[in-house]
Design goal:
Blueprint: E1 12-21, E2 24-34, E3 39-43, H1 50-57, E4 65-70, E5 73-75, H2 80-85, E6 88-91, H3 103-109, H4 118-132, H5 147-160, E7 165-169, H6 177-191, E8 196-200, H7 204-210, E9 213-218, E10 221-227, H8 233-241, E11 259-268, E12 276-284, E13 288-292, H9 299-306, E14 314-318, E15 323-326, H10 340-345, E16 355-356, E17 359-360, H11 362-375, H12 392-404, E18 410-414, H13 422-437, E19 441-445, H14 449-455, E20 458-463, E21 466-472, H15 478-485
Parallel strand pairs: 3-8, 3-9, 6-7, 7-8, 13-19, 13-20, 15-18, 18-19
Antiparallel strand pairs: 1-2, 1-4, 4-5, 9-10, 11-12, 11-14, 16-17, 20-21
Helix pairs in contact: 3-4, 4-5, 12-13
Length: 504
């Protein structure tokens, strides 16, 4: 009897891996195999165990049961350096580049030997970038790179360190369509050289664009795995969210009140490459205004100055007395070293109900935090767990719930659903609509044009730190955004339908 074709061992795998954190079974006997030359998507809700699986594969966590396998052999990683030595590259959701360092500087710091030759490292990076087809500025400080360029820079660094497997955690969460396409083109080129790629994501569009195989986790268990061509989007979506996702509420028209947040001829900078310049913007009570445009065109400076976190260099900002703010990086507004109840209640610690003779009433604070968890569906329901034990979606629900709970006059949300799954996104959208219905003036800054159009009454297009359009949401489609962002009229020939072209 003739022997069947030999099947190559996966380049990296989890074998019956389980991992538990306090109050959370993150992984339960998970098997996951990543083949060389393929892009494998790992899908699931926030809290399904995707990031835990990625961290174990990257050597950042160890399994309670089961093991990691490299090229068919069991491997035990004592830390990230062990995984790097075994050829495992890791690109986290929050990029790890230091703003003041170049890619060459970063590679030099990662070398095990103290004496390194900059010329040798530069040549190595240049060769690696050329083989990967990535045109990247090696001697430019990271702060001057766009979000997409920073991600590609991390990809080149991982390959230069000898990565034969690339793990990417939610790489598209803050990228626009053109940046996503560029990233995927490079990932496909890298996979075609034999490198194995694991793409941790919650976007079904990512799977369709680039993945060869997909595995879905739900509550720490594998509920689907197989080639992408063998499964449709409906089956994948049902595997991810089950029957938990309600139909989105019908869009309704609100009648805005008086001006609440007013920016008049404002210029401001917060250290990002692009400041905002001479911006004037009015948001009324009960109105949602969405800001769209290519990432890195002044969004952070606009968010910080509108929320009162920085003072304008010129111009004025006026708003109601109670201004809530959900920043782009959620951990900037949480207390990662403490139990979750601290993050839930930090803005209320001085209230008489929680402070007696200068001492905090911990029992009352934990009880109130638990009630906030119930109101905003933060899971697990125990506010005494570390805030870092919560998934990204539950951290965001905690943060949005805290900021919106008291009915603020103004709320500024920067990337409110960035990196979140369908259920968490749905929950945050309900919070935003509820606040606007109650009369809050809402400013939403989003890289997702569809999201902004769904939420907003008006859309503002930001390009190179300036507002180039301010129109009703239903009057702005992708083509109009491109033309307005490019300084053209809304009429004319048919351009490429991505807002990223506006940056060029």
């Amino acid at each position: 009897m003739a022997a069947g074709p030999m099947i190559a061992a996966p380049m990296l795998a989890l074998r019956s891996v389980s991992k538990r954190f306090p109050a959370v079974q993150a992984l339960d006997t998970v098997d996951l195999a990543i083949q060389g030359g393929q892009i494998h998507a790992l899908l699931g809700q926030n809290g399904a165990g995707k990031s835990t699986a990625g961290r174990i594969l990257a050597g950042l966590d160890t399994p309670d049961e089961g093991y990691v396998e490299v090229a068919g052999s069991p491997a035990r990683f004592a830390g990230r350096s062990d995984a790097i030595e075994r050829g495992v590259g890791f690109i986290p959701q929050a990029d790890s580049l230091v703003d003041d360092l170049t890619l060459v500087d970063t590679l030099a710091l990662s070398q095990p030997h103290r004496l390194v030759r900059r010329r040798t490292l530069t040549a190595k990076l240049r060769t690696t970038a050329s083989h990967a087809g990535v045109p990247i500025a090696l001697d430019t400080p990271a702060r001057h790179l766009s979000r997409g360029e920073r991600q590609l820079g991390e990809l080149v660094l991982a390959l230069a360190q000898g990565a034969r497997v690339l793990l990417l955690d939610e790489p598209t969460s803050a990228l626009g369509p053109r940046e996503v396409k560029t990233l995927f083109d490079h990932l496909r080129a890298v996979a075609d050289t034999g490198v194995a790629v694991l793409l941790i994501t919650h976007h079904l569009a990512d799977v369709r664009q680039v993945a060869d195989a997909a595995t879905v986790l739900a509550h720490g268990r594998v509920v689907h795995t197989g080639p992408v061509v063998d499964v449709n989007d409906r089956t994948l979506a049902r595997a991810i969210v089950g029957d938990e996702l309600d139909a989105p509420p019908p869009r309704h028209t609100r009648t805005p009140g008086q001006d609440v947040l007013v920016l008049s001829n404002v210029s401001a900078t917060c250290g990002d490459p692009v400041p905002v310049r001479d911006i004037s913007l009015r948001i009324r009570a009960g109105e949602v205004v969405g800001v769209v445009g290519v990432a890195g065109n002044g969004q952070r400076a606009l968010a910080e100055v509108a929320a009162g976190r920085i003072a304008p260099a010129t111009g004025t900002v006026s708003g109601g007395p109670r201004v809530a703010y959900v920043p782009e990086r959620r951990l900037d507004a949480l207390l990662p070293e403490r139990a979750a109840w601290w993050s839930a209640m930090v803005t209320r610690l001085r209230e008489p109900a929680f402070s007696r003779r200068g001492a905090l009433d911990t029992t009352a604070l934990v009880r109130a935090a638990g009630a906030l968890f119930d109101r905003h569906d933060v899971r697990p329901r125990d506010p005494r767990v570390a805030v870092t034990a919560l998934s990204g979606g539950n951290q965001q629900k905690l943060l949005a719930g805290r900021e919106l709970d008291d009915g603020p006059d103004v709320v500024v949300l920067h990337g409110p659903t960035q990196g979140l799954d369908l259920l968490a996104t749905h929950a945050i959208h309900k919070e935003i609509n509820r606040a606007a219905d109650a009369g809050t003036a809402v400013l939403v800054i989003s890289a997702d044009l569809d999201e902004a159009r769904q939420l907003a009454d008006r859309l503002v297009v930001l390009s190179k730190g300036r507002i180039v359009a301010d129109v009703p949401a239903d009057e702005l489609d992708d083509t109009v955004v491109w033309r307005l962002s490019s300084g053209l009229s809304a009429a004319g020939g048919e351009p490429d339908r991505t807002i990223e072209d506006a940056a060029e």
